[in-house]
Design goal:
Blueprint lengths: L1 E2 L2 H21 L5 E7 L3 H17 L2 E7 L5 H12 L6 E4 L9 H6 L12 H9 L7 H12 L8 E5 L6 H10 L3 E5 L7 H4 L4 E4 L16 E5 L3 E2 L5 E2 L4 H4 L3 E4 L6 H19 L1
Length: 279
């Protein structure tokens, strides 16, 4: 069993980004990312801090805009429109989840698709779907980058994606198709998921349920990518895979933490750089 080290791969990708951004800086230009955070959700605070740290590490200019939970939707949309027209900003990110009174779709769709570094907009999702050059979702793009870093040939693999969210499941399935895998998407309404997972060469799990994928659901030699992040009752981080037991049957597996997580933040830097180049 080979443990897929997301931290190591992420570091390699960040070094490449840093080098490119350094060359851009020498031309008197810079790459900029605006991060908007609303309210004081502890997990969101950690994620935003990680993103700002990654910006500092790679040389991306970051601006953090923090608002109280009771901020009006109008105020957020006005800020986004200002940032859309700001040539110093190449990427705009609104940290989710949002307080209940704010309309997520309305706020996210206010972001100029060319600056949508999360890859959530209809335009970027559509380009991903059509197989065109796009700012694809950071987590799915990170998963593909991880597989390629370990020279895992995706073409021809029987791949099962568990989860159909717009953030991970659906775009991951599309990107696997682009790499010529045969893809099955399973979800909460799938009858007998084991029927599909037992035959899978590659399984990506993104359901948000601790230890959902168990040893009896996989065949020997399977590749498992765990995109879940949960907390146990003891407060420990764990993924959607019963790592201890499933790993015994795997050829490759990602740990949680230290697998997909670091790649998500790194691909955000990658997309911000890409948005700069596209502009």
């Amino acid at each position: 069993m080979i443990l897929i080290d997301g931290k190591k791969v992420s570091q390699t990708v960040r070094e490449e980004i840093k080098k490119e951004i350094s060359e851009i800086s020498e031309q008197g230009k810079h790459v900029g990312l605006a991060v908007i955070i609303i309210g004081d959700d502890p997990a969101s605070q950690v994620y935003v801090r990680n993103k700002i740290n990654a910006c500092n590490e790679t040389g991306i200019l970051s601006r953090r805009y923090a608002f109280p939970a009771n901020v009006s939707e109008t105020e957020i949309i006005e800020l986004i429109e200002t940032l859309n027209n700001d040539n110093d900003i190449n990427g705009i990110l609104v940290q989710l989840p949002l307080p209940k009174h704010l309309n997520k779709e309305r706020i996210l769709s206010a972001i100029d698709p060319k600056k949508d570094v999360d890859g959530f907009s209809a335009e970027q999702s559509g380009k991903t779907f059509l197989g065109e050059e796009a700012l694809s979702g950071c987590t799915p793009e990170g998963i593909i980058t991880l597989l390629k870093a370990y020279n895992i040939k995706i073409e021809g693999l029987n791949a099962v994606v568990i989860g159909r969210s717009n953030i991970v499941g659906k775009p991951a399935a599309i990107l696997l198709l682009k790499e010529n895998a045969t893809v099955t998407v399973c979800h909460t309404r799938t009858k007998d998921i084991k029927l599909y997972t037992k035959n899978a060469d590659l399984i990506i799990v993104a359901v948000g349920k601790p230890k959902f994928l168990t040893k009896d659901m996989v065949k020997d030699g399977v590749i498992v990518i765990d995109a879940g992040i949960n907390r146990t009752e003891e407060g420990k981080l764990c993924g959607d895979v019963d790592f201890e037991n499933v790993s015994k049957k795997c050829s490759y597996i990602t740990p949680v933490p230290g697998g997909v997580g670091p790649m998500t933040v790194t691909m955000l830097m990658y997309n911000t750089l890409k948005a700069f180049k596209n502009a």
